[in-house]
Design brief:
The chain is α/β, with parallel strands linked by helices. Helices cover 41% and strands 23% of the residues. The protein is built from eight helices and eleven strands. The strands form two sheets. The chain has a nine-stranded mixed sheet with strand order 5-2-1-6-11-10-7-8-9, with helices on both faces. The protein has a two-stranded antiparallel ribbon with strand order 3-4. Strand 8, helix 6 and strand 9 form a beta-alpha-beta unit. Helix 1 packs across helix 5 and helix 5 packs across helix 6. It is globular, with a radius of gyration of 19 Å. It comes from Leptonema illini. This is UspA domain-containing protein.
């Protein structure tokens, strides 16, 4: 089967930006595109609890939170995102498919993933300090994390192709333990402007991305940050392309 980009999105406002990124990446890499709209069952379970209430901001009234209202909202968001994906893929002459999946977001995503798929994580938590895509500069660098020589070569190649197509520089993030020789070997043949920064943890990855106004983080699949626990922390802050 042809290699794909699998876009995983939810009903957050940032999902629309994720669709744009996925389409541009699929066009640059000449891949098919599959969209997964994730209905988080934890939200639906919470809405069904008898103590869950909705407060009307204008009238000040309190009423039971209706699960049916949440489900209607999710269906509406899914239809709108599918329509946006259809419009953009038609513009870029790409083929696409779209599916709505209910369950745990990461389990649902991985259950539909095939071995060679590139994943774009466009679902986020709603913490106030997460990066606001709507206000994010569109000319910032593409950030890429180089875990080690084994996992990083293909990741860097994908990040470079995107950077060249988007006319953007690369922000090279690497662990402090990566030797200068290994780093030089990885980045020595790049044809785009780069800036390198060492990081010692997930928090610093996000800090550097925010500092340099990056709006996409490319990660090597199978590296130390490929664990769902780490990915969930990162995807709550910045869109992640998992290569």
């Amino acid at each position: 089967m042809r290699r794909r980009i699998v876009l995983s999105i939810d009903s957050s406002s940032r999902g629309r930006k994720a669709v744009h990124w996925a389409v541009r990446a699929a066009s640059t890499l000449q891949l098919d595109l599959t969209g997964l709209f994730l209905e988080d069952e934890r939200i639906l379970r919470m809405a069904s609890l008898p103590l869950t209430k909705e407060l009307g901001l204008l009238a000040g009234d309190v009423r039971a939170f209706e699960t049916a209202d949440v489900e209607r909202h999710l269906r509406r968001e899914a239809r709108e995102l599918e329509l946006l994906l259809k419009q953009l893929t038609h513009q870029y002459r790409l083929s696409f498919s779209f599916e709505t999946v209910r369950g745990d977001p990461f389990q649902a995503m991985h259950s539909r993933r095939q071995a060679d798929d590139i994943m774009l994580l466009g679902f986020f938590d709603t913490r106030v300090h997460s990066i606001d895509w709507a206000r994010q500069k569109s000319s910032g660098p593409i950030a890429v994390f180089l875990d080690d020589e084994t996992h990083s070569k293909q990741t860097l190649a994908v990040a470079e192709r995107l950077a060249r197509q988007e006319s953007r520089p690369l922000l090279i993030l690497h662990p402090t333990a990566l030797s200068a020789d290994a780093l030089a070997k990885l980045v020595g043949t790049l044809q785009v402007p780069i800036q390198t920064q060492s990081v010692s943890g997930i928090d610093q990855l996000v800090q550097r991305a925010r500092l340099f106004h990056a709006d996409l983080l490319v990660l090597p699949d199978g590296g130390r940050l490929g664990d769902p626990t780490y990915l969930q922390l990162l995807a709550g802050e910045i869109p992640v392309l998992l290569v």
